[in-house]
Structures are given as structure tokens and as C-alpha cells.
């Protein structure tokens, strides 16, 4: 028999297995044998390896996954997902006198089915396990203080009692329908293996299996005992022989692996392990792209594993030009498409539970409407000038949360068909709802040009038709409502992946981590090597407590960690160049910014002990993006804009903006670019502050002497004024609901506490006179041939026994340290101090003979009372201070702006630039 060996010294695991099989089986008999592998991906590789090893034509063997192999033995048709959940509910209703609604039950149904699958896959006695589980829950409910259970406790205990009955009834019910669950198929296969084994006339090869259930173990044991099958474990002595290495847990657990000859590739192969720390997920992509571009790797022997598959989209957009051949194995999740974003928006809006959020009768929520119209897939359908129209500006100005849909579609006729989905709100029949939804999505397909977006809609329509089929065949249709359909659709559609087309065995291979099983590459790049992804969250979506799982030998957290540990070490055991990349970006998950424990293990175990392995930590330095890097120089046009700005007037805000970020100043004050106005769903901080300012202005607008009696009167009148100010901003009254209501009451409390403080101040220091509110002041500075305006708007000016007090209301949290300075060079860090100094300087220009006390009232820091500007330990400012301040303005602001070498560039320390 002629065979062809490939690089016999450095074969992959699949090469080695293929050679053994070829040496045992005649070429003509290969068609009769069965190769069982962990995944379909590994099956594609194995076919290719067989064809390379043999130099003649032959029929391929039967190559299937372990899951397909067991389902075949069981002779069962498996039911899962939404269809299985519906059937489970039918059984649940039969054993419960007061069943939960289907809508609520569907929250728990996937967990129950998953646990039933565990019971069956691990060949457990369901009655015993569920009885033990009930007993545990009984003990948890029992209390010395309350000998009688509450109604809730009784209901809870009853659920665990019924769980065992539900298990049996569910399987009986499915059996009548000629279906079974995946777990039960495994149990059936384990029971049938003796009968089925007699029909296996050719050898079976079990290749690369690791974590196995009890049913799989039972089937494999029988096949091995009868010498029907051979098994090949893909592992390395580095972790199989070391009892402390969790990666070898399953090898040591199953006796049939013990006779295997395990190689020592991990330590005998020269390796370079490079560990990279990235600041963000996008930096991870840039690092991987740079490695592919500059490391001179043989891309046909290179794999890039995405442990977090959400990185696929940014990776696709950052593949370097030198990657000529590329194969992406995992498919593109349609959750990342604009079409799915639209589907999600529409379905959520049609859910009866969300009706008050998205709709108010025939009125549509402004934010919801804006989200739909701003989706890039409608660029050609929706005019870009829509938000520039008088109609749209009027909507924004009214600040109303809901817009009359009929009025809007009459004004913008091109949106009428697009927004026609609102008609589905009134449809109650589930089947009618689904049919109308299909019709609407079919209409959308015609309006969209992008191939991936159209494909998303087509696959979504297919998914909707499957749901329709499930419901049509379901015996208890009356329990299904629109909300249930919407939830099922969103869940099912979100799991769809669009397959990529490419050369599956050529060029760079990009794949998910689970697809790495039994595949070997010379160069391996792993992204998202963070503790939160590798091994990942320890959350166990099961009703079974840890102790019960441990007692019944059901896999738990330890086994899950052992699986991921095995995947990690297996993926690098034969590699020569290994690149491990993790992100330090904080996310919601615990451990999201921490490197994986496996990186720490490598550093501890290998770095100083094995000369064949070079382990290094490396850092990439990335240049900032072009937008942040761009610098605006001071040309003639810019100088002209600066002159205009000087005539318009320099405000404290503009100086603070320049100190914070010159480029931001250039955009806001020279180009005069403003942020687009929006309708506020939730009251914005600046709006909240404006409302309080206006309320206090209204209280003090009559000026005159302020006594304790006057403050008492203010405390009686301000609630009415405050509500009027909120009504002006939010005429639909939405400040009375939800989070907005909290902000309304916070405003009430802040003003009330402030007035109480003022009353205490009057008792302690005497009455004061309000001489001005919202006073606009300006002063001109002459510099060379320019007359430069300095301007400011003072919230309140008081005459006190000590002199003039300038009050500036601040809706934020301000402390004494924020307005305490020893020199003008600290203004960048003390923006409130600059503001107060400017106000005092402006007032001084109108009256040079009084002491001035500029101060802040921090409404969110009521304990602070009035906070005075503290300049060199003085709260009263004199003539000399203002002379120094004017010199500061000229030398550090005006002259800087007029300098021909002045450059407006982003300040890296600034966090709140509008465009930087």
C-alpha cells in the first residue's frame, strides 16, 4: 500500500492519527470505518490530511462528530430551543393547579431543560437526585422562628416537589410526539449500545475527545472492551503527568486514556511565548494586525483564536494587506449588523410590555424614531437634511418626548412605508402578527442595498417562519401572546451567524477558541486572554447547587475550568511562536482587566525552568488617531477669527476651555461649532442646573433687603416657581415620572437646604441687600491697536456688612479646595477659581472702592454653605490683585492667541473635549 508522509518529524496530532489508521486499514476498506471527532471543523482537516497521506484515489471514511455519533446510536429525533420550551410548559400546566403564565415560565424553562439534560447525560436516577434537591430546599425554608411555612415558601417547596414529576411527564409527552431531548438521546444511546454494537462491522476511531459525560464514557468503554473502537487522546505529558495541572484532569479521570502514549511536545519544541498588554479591545486588534504584518510568519501555518468572538468585526476591518488568503470559520454574528439593530428596535417597540416607553397612543417616542432614522442602512432612503428642516427644529425646541406619527409621515412622506410597522401594534393574533412581520421585513429587503444586511433580513425571515411552524403545531396556542413571540424571535435571531466563504485549509485561519480542538499550528495568536474570558465567568446556569453536583459527579465550576485549561495548553503544545494578548480595559465583568490565570501559570512554571521556551512580555506603542493628532496653525484666517472673538467677548468659560484643550477652544469659540440640540429623555445636568438658576433668579429678582422673614416667604413660594420652571422645559410633565422625578425632588431639596443656610447666615452675620441678579458685565482691555472685550454673567450681587459679595450658583459638587489658589498658574486645575476671579475683576471695573468677595453656592454640597474664593489665604480682593489678573489675561491668553506660532492641538489630559 503506497503512502505519502508529510514532514514526519513534526507531524500534527491529526497527521499522527491518520498515519496509524492508514497503517492498520487497507485503502479499499477506509470507506467502511468511522472517525469520531470533537467538531466538524476538525473533520474537514482530517479529510485533507488523509488525502495528503495517500498517493492514490480512495473513498473517504465516515467522519462525524461525537454528538452526531451518539444521536445516530439513539435513533432519536432531538427537540430543543423554543419548541422544547413550549412542550415543557404543556407538561408543567398538567401538574400545577395554579401555573405561572407561559411568559414567566419561559424565563426558567431553558434552565430546567438544561438540568434534565445533565441528569440524562450523566445517567443519574432522576427521582433520587430531585428528591435530594427538594430536601435541601426544605431545610433552607425551615426556621426555628417560624414553624409554619409562608405561602411563598410553600409555593417554592411545591415547585421542587413537582420537578421530579415534570421530568417524567416531559419525556413521556415528547415520546408520544416522536421526539426527545439531547440529554435523553444520550441516555438511550448508552442503553442501546450493546444492541447497536453488533451492527458495527468496521472499526471506529475516537479521536481528540476530552471532557466526556457518563453516557459517553459508558458507550466508549463498551466499544473499547469489545475491540470495536480505538481511542486517541490529544494531549501532552506537560499536563497529563502533573496532578496539579487541571488541563490533564479528564485524561486522568478516564481509565481508557491511560494506555495512550502521550508525547512531550510542549517542552521539547522550541517556543517563543510573547505576552502583550493592550489598553483596549481595539488595541488588541492592532497588536494582532502588527504581528501578522511584521513578524514574517508563514500564514498557512498560522491561527488567530478569538476567545471573545465579539472582536470579529473590528478584526475584519483591520486585516493587514499582506494577508492574501484568509479563512474565517466561526461565521459573522448578525447581532453586529444594522438590520438586527432595526429588528431589535422594532420588536421591542411592539412588545406590549414596552408600549408606554415607545408609544403614547398614535404618538411615537422621539428617541426611538431618531434611532431608526439614523441607521446607516437608510442613508439613501432618508434625506440627510431631515434634521435641518423647520419641522424637525420645531420638534426639538418643543422638547416633547412623543411626536404625532401621522403628522411626521405627512411631512416626510418617504418615511411612511418604513414606519408602517406601527400597524402591528394593534394585531393580537400571534399567527397574523408573524405573517405581517414577514411581510414588513420582505418590504425592507427591497429598500436595502448592502448584501450582508439583506442576508440578515432573509435569515431572520426564515427564523420567523420556524417560530410560526412551532406555534402552528403547538397544542396550547391560546397561551401564546405577542410578547412571547417577540422574545423567542429576538433570542433565535440573535444566535444566527452568516457564514464566510473562503479557503477552509489555506492562509490565515481565524476561529473561535472551541474550534481549536485537535488542530495544530506553528504560529498561534490568542486574543482576549483575560480572566473574564479564559476561563471566563464562574456563573453556573443551573438549579443544582454545587454540593449536589459534586456528590452526583455532575460537572461544575472546576470541570469547566479544567476544560478551558485543556483548550489553552492544547492549542499551544505543538506551536513554536505564541502570541498571548489581553486587555486592561475595565468592563462590567469581574476580572475583565486581569490577565488570565494561565498566563500567570506560564510565567511561574516556565520562565525560569525551561531553556527551550523563551517567554517575554512586550509592549506596542500606538500613535494617536489622526483626528487627535491634527494640529491647527495660526494662519491669517485664524487670526481674523480671533479678532472677531475678541470683539464678541472673552468669557471665563472660553478661557477655561482654552486652558483645558486649545483644539476644543478652536472648534467651539473660533469656528463656533455647537453640539446638536436633542430632546431629553432624562433631564440633563445642565438643564437641571438651569432650572435651579431660573428658580433662584425668580426668587431674588425684586432685589432689596433680605431678612429671615423674606427667606421664610421664599421657602413658601419656591415650590410653585420650581414646578413652573420644570413645566417650561418639559411641557409634557415627564419630570414627574421615573428617574426624572428623583431629579425633580433633588432640585426641591437642594433649594430648600440652600434657603435654610441663608437664614442661618442672616442670623449670624445680619441682613444683606441683593443689588442685582443675572447681571451682565463687560470691560475692555486695550492691547496694541485692539480693543478686547471681557464679559461675564453674574448670577447675583449682594451688598453685605463686609462689602460686595458675588454669588455664582453651581449645580455641581464644589468644595473649598476647588477655589483655593496661591497663583494664577493653577487656573487649569481650578476652573471655578478663574471664573470667580473674572467676575470680581469685571465688577471691580465698575466700582473700585469696595471690598469684593466672590463666592460659589454649591447646590449639591449643601453642607459647604457659601464657598469664598481663597486667593493667597485672602477672601477679599483688592486693586493689586486685579492689576495682576489683567496682566495674566494679556500675557497668558491674548498674546498666546495672537502669536503666529500658536498651535491649536488636543491636550491629552483633557477628558471632555467636544470633538477631540
Describe the model.
With 916 residues, this protein is α/β, with parallel strands linked by helices. It has five domains: 105 residues, Rossmann fold, CATH 3.40.50; 99 residues, no CATH class; 181 residues, P-loop containing nucleotide triphosphate hydrolases (Rossmann fold, 3-Layer(aba) Sandwich); 164 residues; 266 residues, Lambda Exonuclease, Chain A (Alpha-Beta Complex). The chain is built from 35 helices and 26 strands. A seven-stranded parallel β-sheet has the order 7-13-6-14-15-5-16. A six-stranded mixed β-sheet has the order 18-19-20-21-23-24. Helix 2 links the parallel strand 1 and strand 2. Helix 8 packs parallel to helix 9 and helix 20 packs antiparallel against helix 21. The radius of gyration is 36 Å and the shape is elongated.
Tags for this entry?
916 residues; alpha/beta; Rossmann fold; seven-stranded parallel beta sheet; six-stranded mixed beta sheet; 35 helices; 26 strands
Amino acid at each position: 500500500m503506497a503512502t505519502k508522509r508529510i514532514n514526519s518529524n513534526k507531524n500534527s496530532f491529526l497527521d499522527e492519527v491518520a498515519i496509524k489508521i492508514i497503517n492498520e486499514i487497507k485503502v479499499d476498506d477506509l470507506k467502511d470505518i468511522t472517525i469520531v471527532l470533537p467538531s466538524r471543523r476538525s473533520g474537514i482537516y482530517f479529510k485533507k490530511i488523509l488525502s495528503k497521506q495517500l498517493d492514490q484515489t480512495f473513498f473517504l471514511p465516515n467522519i462525524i462528530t461525537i454528538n452526531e455519533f451518539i444521536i445516530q446510536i439513539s435513533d432519536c429525533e432531538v427537540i430543543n430551543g423554543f419548541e422544547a420550551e413550549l412542550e415543557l410548559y404543556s407538561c408543567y400546566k398538567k401538574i400545577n393547579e395554579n401555573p405561572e403564565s407561559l411568559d414567566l415560565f419561559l424565563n426558567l424553562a431553558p434552565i430546567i431543560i438544561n438540568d434534565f439534560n445533565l441528569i440524562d447525560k450523566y445517567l443519574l436516577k432522576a427521582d433520587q437526585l430531585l428528591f435530594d434537591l427538594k430536601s435541601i430546599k426544605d431545610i433552607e425554608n425551615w426556621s426555628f422562628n417560624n414553624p409554619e411555612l409562608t405561602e411563598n415558601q410553600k409555593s417554592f417547596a411545591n415547585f421542587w416537589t413537582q420537578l421530579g414529576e415534570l421530568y417524567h411527564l416531559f419525556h413521556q409527552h415528547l415520546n408520544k410526539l416522536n421526539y426527545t431531548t439531547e440529554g435523553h438521546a444520550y441516555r438511550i444511546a448508552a442503553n442501546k449500545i450493546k444492541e447497536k454494537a453488533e451492527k458495527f462491522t468496521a472499526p471506529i476511531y475516537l479521536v481528540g475527545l476530552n471532557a466526556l459525560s457518563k453516557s459517553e464514557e459508558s458507550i466508549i468503554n463498551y466499544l473499547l472492551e469489545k475491540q470495536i473502537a480505538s481511542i486517541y487522546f490529544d494531549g501532552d505529558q506537560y499536563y497529563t503527568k502533573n496532578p496539579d495541572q487541571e488541563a490533564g484532569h479528564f485524561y486522568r479521570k478516564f481509565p481508557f486514556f491511560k494506555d495512550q502514549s502521550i508525547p512531550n511536545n510542549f517542552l521539547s519544541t522550541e517556543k517563543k511565548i510573547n505576552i502583550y498588554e493592550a489598553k483596549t479591545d481595539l488595541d488588541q486588534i492592532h497588536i494582532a494586525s502588527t504581528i501578522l504584518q511584521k513578524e514574517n510568519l508563514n500564514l498557512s501555518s498560522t491561527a488567530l483564536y478569538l476567545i471573545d468572538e465579539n472582536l470579529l468585526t473590528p478584526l475584519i476591518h483591520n486585516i493587514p494587506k499582506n494577508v492574501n488568503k484568509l479563512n474565517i470559520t466561526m461565521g459573522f454574528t448578525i447581532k453586529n449588523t444594522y438590520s438586527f439593530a432595526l429588528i431589535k428596535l422594532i420588536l421591542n417597540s411592539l412588545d406590549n410590555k414596552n408600549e408606554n416607553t415607545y408609544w403614547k397612543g398614535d404618538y411615537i417616542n422621539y428617541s426611538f424614531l431618531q434611532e431608526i432614522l439614523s441607521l446607516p442602512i437608510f442613508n439613501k432612503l432618508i434625506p440627510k437634511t431631515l434634521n435641518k428642516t423647520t419641522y424637525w427644529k420645531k420638534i426639538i425646541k418643543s422638547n416633547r418626548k412623543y411626536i404625532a406619527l401621522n403628522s411626521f409621515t405627512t411631512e416626510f412622506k418617504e418615511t411612511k412605508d418604513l414606519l408602517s410597522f406601527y400597524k402591528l401594534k394593534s394585531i393580537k393574533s400571534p399567527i397574523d402578527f408573524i405573517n405581517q412581520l414577514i411581510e414588513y421585513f420582505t418590504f425592507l429587503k427591497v429598500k436595502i442595498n448592502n448584501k450582508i444586511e439583506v442576508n440578515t433580513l432573509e435569515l431572520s425571515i426564515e427564523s420567523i417562519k420556524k417560530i410560526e411552524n412551532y406555534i402552528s403545531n403547538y397544542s396550547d396556542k391560546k397561551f401564546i401572546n405577542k410578547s412571547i413571540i417577540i422574545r423567542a424571535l429576538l433570542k433565535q435571531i440573535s444566535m444566527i451567524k452568516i457564514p464566510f466563504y473562503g479557503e477552509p485549509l489555506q492562509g490565515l485561519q481565524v476561529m473561535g477558541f472551541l474550534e481549536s480542538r485537535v488542530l495544530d499550528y506553528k504560529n498561534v495568536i490568542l486574543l482576549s486572554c483575560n480572566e473574564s474570558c479564559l476561563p471566563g465567568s464562574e456563573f453556573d446556569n443551573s438549579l443544582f447547587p454545587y454540593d449536589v453536583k459534586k456528590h452526583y459527579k455532575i460537572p461544575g465550576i472546576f470541570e469547566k475550568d479544567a476544560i478551558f485549561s485543556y483548550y489553552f495548553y492544547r492549542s499551544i503544545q505543538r506551536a513554536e511562536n505564541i502570541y498571548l494578548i489581553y486587555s486592561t480595559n475595565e468592563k462590567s465583568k469581574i476580572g475583565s482587566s486581569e490577565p488570565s490565570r494561565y498566563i500567570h501559570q506560564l510565567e511561574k512554571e516556565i520562565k525560569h525552568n525551561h531553556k527551550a521556551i523563551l517567554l517575554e512580555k512586550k509592549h506596542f506603542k500606538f500613535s494617536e488617531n489622526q483626528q487627535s493628532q491634527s494640529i491647527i496653525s495660526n494662519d491669517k484666517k485664524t487670526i481674523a477669527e480671533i479678532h472677531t472673538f475678541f470683539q464678541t467677548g472673552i468669557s471665563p468659560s472660553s478661557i477655561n476651555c482654552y486652558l483645558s484643550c486649545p483644539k476644543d477652544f478652536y472648534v467651539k469659540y473660533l469656528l463656533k461649532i455647537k453640539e446638536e440640540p436633542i430632546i431629553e429623555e432624562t433631564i440633563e445636568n445642565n438643564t437641571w442646573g438651569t432650572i435651579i438658576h431660573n428658580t433662584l433668579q425668580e426668587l431674588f429678582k425684586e432685589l432689596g433687603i433680605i431678612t429671615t422673614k423674606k427667606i421664610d416667604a421664599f421657602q413658601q413660594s419656591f415650590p410653585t416657581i420650581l414646578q413652573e420652571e420644570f413645566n417650561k422645559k418639559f411641557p409634557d410633565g415627564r419630570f414627574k415620572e421615573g428617574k426624572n422625578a428623583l431629579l425633580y425632588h433633588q432640585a426641591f431639596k437642594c433649594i430648600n437646604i440652600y434657603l435654610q443656610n441663608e437664614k442661618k447666615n442672616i442670623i449670624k452675620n445680619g441682613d444683606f441687600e441683593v443689588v442685582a441678579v443675572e447681571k451682565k458685565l463687560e470691560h475692555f482691555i486695550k492691547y496694541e491697536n485692539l480693543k478686547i472685550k471681557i464679559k461675564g454673567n453674574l448670577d447675583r450681587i449682594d451688598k453685605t456688612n463686609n462689602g460686595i459679595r458675588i454669588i455664582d450658583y453651581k449645580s455641581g459638587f464644589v468644595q473649598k479646595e476647588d477655589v483655593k489658589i496661591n497663583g494664577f498658574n493653577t487656573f487649569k486645575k481650578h476652573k471655578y477659581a478663574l471664573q470667580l476671579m473674572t467676575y470680581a475683576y469685571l465688577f471691580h471695573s465698575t466700582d473700585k472702592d469696595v471690598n469684593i468677595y466672590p463666592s460659589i453656592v454649591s447646590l449639591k454640597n449643601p453642607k459647604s454653605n457659601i464657598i469664598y474664593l481663597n486667593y493667597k489665604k485672602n477672601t477679599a480682593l483688592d486693586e493689586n490683585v486685579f492689576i495682576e489678573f489683567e496682566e495674566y489675561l494679556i500675557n497668558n491668553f491674548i498674546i498666546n492667541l495672537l502669536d503666529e506660532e500658536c498651535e491649536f492641538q488636543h491636550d491629552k489630559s483633557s477628558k471632555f473635549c467636544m470633538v477631540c
